[in-house]
From TrEMBL:
Pfam family of the protein (one): AraC_binding
Keywords: DNA-binding
Protein species of origin: Olivibacter oleidegradans
Top-level taxon in the UniProt lineage: Bacteria
Listed name of the protein: AraC family ligand binding domain-containing protein
Taxonomic lineage of the native organism: Bacteria, Pseudomonadati, Bacteroidota, Sphingobacteriia, Sphingobacteriales
Length: 295
């Protein structure tokens, strides 16, 4: 005969209450939605007045003055004058301000970066690499003195044109490309560490950087870069990500191609050349294989 276990019952109730509370919290988390191409905001605060939130856009946050803690995905990082953060759409965050802080925010959606781009593809690729590599979203950028000065000058420019964003959209876009070039030096393409999550970030960064060069994405090349064997890289990636390395590369590349097609600024011939594909028919074949319905 089985007797009623009140202790076990209470634990179950507590467990389900905990899970439901977490799910309710996540569903109620505020999401800021932006429809403009770019938004620049400069403001000063003694206390942080925004609830924990996510966005539908990317945010570059520059600390013009002040200090405190920045919490991203429950991970805290000290900030001070000159600190720079990059947040992705799914990064929840808030600031714990210790001394009065002056912020400069540059908010943008990645789709707008592809519209009317006349600059060399290389700059767009650097920015794609930056914003798509999650490692950049979880900590502050550590810059050398010359990098700090360059970033400061860029954000001074943003400050000057913050009320004329529509007029200076192309200037803003080009300044974002400049930031990507400066910050790319901080990306963890190869880290010797026992922390496998950091190893995965380095692997993602490598893929994102070389997505335009198929030869660099062969298992043999990736394994050589990370001082591993080809037989190790594939299973290692699938074990940590849940899909094969080949599928991830294909899906990520198609995502970037879709952005270019949606912008209307790229011809299929240009896309094929940029991504090292044979011709326009190869681009169409890749997209059809995903059954995206875009072409």
């Amino acid at each position: 005969m089985k007797f009623f276990d009140s202790t076990k019952f209470k634990r179950s109730i507590h467990y389900y209450w905990y899970i439901s509370t977490i799910l309710l919290y996540l569903s109620d988390m505020k999401r800021y939605v932006q429809y403009q191409s770019f938004v620049i905001e400069e403001f000063e605060a003694n206390t942080w007045k925004h609830a924990l939130h996510k966005h539908n856009h990317y945010e570059l946050i520059y600390i013009k003055q002040g200090d405190g803690l920045h919490f991203i995905q429950n991970k805290s990082t000290l900030y001070c004058r000159g600190s720079l953060f990059l947040l992705g759409p799914e990064d929840d965050h808030y600031f714990d301000i210790r001394n009065t802080t002056r912020f400069i925010y540059v908010k943008f959606t990645d789709l707008h970066l592809y519209r009317g781009v006349q600059a060399d593809h290389l700059y767009l690729q650097k920015l794609e690499y930056l914003i798509k590599s999650r490692e950049t979203h979880l900590s502050v950028f550590l810059l050398r003195e010359e990098g700090q000065l360059l970033i400061q000058n860029v954000f001074n420019t943003f400050s000057l044109i913050q009320h004329q964003v529509t007029v200076y959209e192309e200037v803003i876009r080009l300044q974002l490309f400049s930031i990507a070039v400066i910050l790319q030096r901080n990306m963890p393409e190869l880290r010797v560490t026992a922390n496998r999550s950091q190893d995965m970030q380095a692997l993602f960064c490598y893929i994102h950087k070389h997505i335009y060069c198929p030869a660099k994405l062969q298992a043999v090349e990736i394994a050589h870069h990370f001082n591993r064997t080809p037989d190790y890289i594939g299973p290692y990636f699938k074990r940590h990500v849940g899909i094969t390395l080949r599928d991830y590369i294909r899906q990520y590349r198609n995502q970037l191609i879709k952005k270019r097609i949606e912008s209307g600024s790229y011809r299929l011939k240009e896309i094929a050349a940029e991504f090292g594909l044979v011709d326009e028919s190869h681009v169409l074949k890749l997209l059809r294989s995903e059954n995206e319905g875009l072409v």
